[in-house]
Specification:
Layout: E1 15-19, H1 32-41, E2 46-50, H2 56-66, E3 71-76, H3 78-91, E4 96-101, H4 107-113, H5 126-138, E5 144-151, E6 154-156, E7 159-163, H6 164-173, H7 182-194, E8 200-205, E9 208-220, E10 242-248, H8 252-264, E11 273-278, E12 280-293, E13 296-315
Parallel strand pairs: 1-2, 1-3, 3-4
Antiparallel strand pairs: 5-6, 5-13, 7-9, 7-12, 8-9, 8-12, 9-10, 10-11, 12-13
Helix pairs in contact: 1-5, 2-3, 6-7
Length: 316
């Protein structure tokens, strides 16, 4: 798809827009024209780029950054952000990244574009968030620096999950229905039906140690998970640290009891849950465990080396 001709410029455009039309199970494609119209309305020159395959956004963002683009905007969900961040980091560029949240969960956009402790960026608010971003572009507002996490050499923007969290994510991605935030709930139900594994692991993070069986370990840069769960209420994406949320071995019945509390961040009061601010940690497991980074399913591993990279991302 090509943008209307009046969005083209004979001069080098100041913004590169990379759109993932497959986001939100393909519904994001319907919003492309609206996104382009926002740039035209604010008279921000833009070049339109579109992803077609998994990994395409990462490659495109890396190439654009290496070619000298300094303002790159991606439109999609958390998976889109994940690819874009890794493309920028691999390019070693100081290009700034802007986000238009048209995915299913948009957890990272919530974390960086709303006030701490609020949930104002809902599915229907994507246009408001996009308008605010384009106005910042039009006004040449300087970017702010946001932390990133890194796990086994790969970057993540919002969070990493080991164990049951990653299993839910994998099963959620198999849901093809356009159900928005409910996709994570579908994944949770399927994961509970398959059974809850509680493997033994050892975790070290500064003075914090844990050794024993656990259901999951979530390492958060942003506070949201799955579009609606306040997994790490204290997580702030520009404070120079990550937030570890560890759930000890729990049963299916106990997980169901904790889910309503998880939506409000009250699960941290449960005796089975531990949480700690960390700047780096190592998780070693007796068996290879599933992993997700920003909702992207990764190869299972027995060892996870995770650290915070303060101020790594210039954010528009």
């Amino acid at each position: 798809m090509s943008p209307p001709s009046n969005l083209q410029s004979s001069l080098q455009p100041s913004v590169q827009l990379v759109v993932n039309p497959a986001a939100r199970r393909g519904l994001a494609a319907r919003r492309v024209e609206d996104v382009l119209a926002l740039f035209e309305r604010e008279q921000v020159p833009v070049v339109y780029n579109e992803s077609r395959l998994p990994g395409d956004i990462e490659a495109q963002v890396e190439a654009l950054a290496r070619e000298g683009a300094m303002r790159i905007v991606v439109a999609g969900g958390d998976g889109t952000v994940h690819e874009a961040v890794n493309g920028l980091m691999r390019a070693g560029s100081e290009a700034a990244l802007g986000l238009i949240p048209i995915g299913s969960g948009n957890d990272f956009s919530k974390a960086v574009y709303t006030e701490p402790g609020t949930e104002r960026l809902r599915d229907r608010d994507w246009a408001d968030a996009a308008r605010a971003l384009v106005r910042r572009l039009a006004d040449n507002t300087p970017p702010r620096r946001i932390d990133l996490g890194r796990c086994n050499g790969r970057y993540f923007a919002n969070g990493a999950g080991v164990g049951f969290d990653a299993m839910i994510t994998r099963l959620s991605r198999e849901v093809r229905l356009p159900v928005g935030n409910l996709v994570y709930v579908f994944g949770l139900v399927r994961a509970l039906l398959q059974g809850v594994a509680t493997p033994a692991l050892r975790l070290e993070a500064g003075n914090y140690r844990y050794e024993g069986r656990a259901t999951l370990a979530n390492i958060a840069n942003g506070c949201w998970l799955g579009g609606q769960f306040l997994i790490a209420p204290d997580a702030v994406p520009d404070d120079g640290q990550l937030n570890l949320v560890l759930a000890k071995a729990v049963t299916r019945r106990r997980i169901l009891a904790l889910v309503p509390r998880l939506k409000k961040g009250l699960h941290l009061e449960a005796e089975e849950v531990q949480h700690e601010p960390v700047d780096k940690l190592v998780i070693e497991c007796e068996q290879a465990l599933p992993l997700h980074l920003d909702g992207e399913v990764c190869t299972p591993s027995k060892r996870f080396e995770i650290d915070c990279v303060p101020g790594a991302l210039p954010l528009l």
